[in-house]
Design goal:
Organism: Kribbella shirazensis
Radius of gyration: 24 Å
InterPro entries: A-crystallin/Hsp20_dom (IPR002068), HSP20-like_chaperone (IPR008978), Small_HSP (IPR031107)
Order of helices and strands: EHEEEEEEE
Largest sheet: 4 strands, antiparallel
Distance between the termini: 53 Å
Family: Belongs to the small heat shock protein (HSP20) family.
Shape: rod-shaped
CATH topology of one domain: Immunoglobulin-like
Protein name: HSP20 family protein
C-alpha cells in the first residue's frame, strides 16, 4: 500500500477557505512542481513523477524507515552574457516529495528509470505480503500410534 502526504495540503485548503469566502472568488492554489501518478500493476506499485527540465544527475532518491524521499533540482538554463530574459515562469531550485510506503512493499528492490522528463519507480510487493495458498490436511493423513 502506498500512502501520500503533502504537509502543505491543509494549509492550502485553509487559505482557499479564508480568501475564497462564500462567493467562490479568490481561489488560490500552490502549483506542485513535482506532480505524480501512482498505481498498482500486478505484484508491484508504479510511481511516475513529472520532472521536465531536470537532468538525471540532479535527482536523488532515499528510503528510510519506509519513507521515500525524491529530491530534484531544476537548474537555470545556460544563457550567453548578452541575453536578456523576457519571461521566466518555470520554477527553478530544489524540489522534494515524500511518500510513506506501506509495510507490504519491498523497499530494498526499488527500480528507478528516467525518460523524457518522467521519473518512474517500480516497487515490488514483498514476498511475505503476497497471497499464498495453504494446504489443509485431514485427520486421515496422520498416523495413529498404538499404545
Amino acid at each position: 500500500m502506498l500512502m501520500r502526504t503533502d504537509p502543505f495540503r491543509e494549509l492550502d485548503r485553509l487559505t482557499q477557505q479564508f480568501f475564497g469566502g462564500a462567493g467562490g472568488q479568490g481561489t488560490w492554489s500552490r502549483p506542485n512542481p513535482m506532480p505524480l501518478d501512482a498505481y498498482r500493476s500486478g505484484d508491484e506499485y508504479v510511481i511516475s513523477f513529472d520532472l521536465p527540465g531536470v537532468a538525471p544527475d540532479a535527482i536523488e532518491l532515499d528510503v528510510e524507515r519506509n519513507v521515500l524521499t525524491v529530491k530534484a533540482e531544476r537548474r537555470p538554463p545556460e544563457v550567453a552574457e548578452n541575453v536578456e530574459m523576457q519571461v521566466a515562469e518555470r520554477p527553478l531550485g530544489v524540489f522534494s516529495r515524500q511518500l510513506f510506503l506501506g509495510e507490504t512493499l519491498d523497499t530494498g528492490k526499488i527500480e528507478a528509470s528516467y525518460d523524457a522528463g518522467v521519473l518512474t519507480l517500480k516497487i515490488p510487493i514483498a514476498e511475505q505480503a503476497k497471497p499464498r495458498r495453504i494446504t489443509v490436511t485431514g485427520a486421515s493423513s496422520h498416523k495413529q500410534l498404538d499404545a
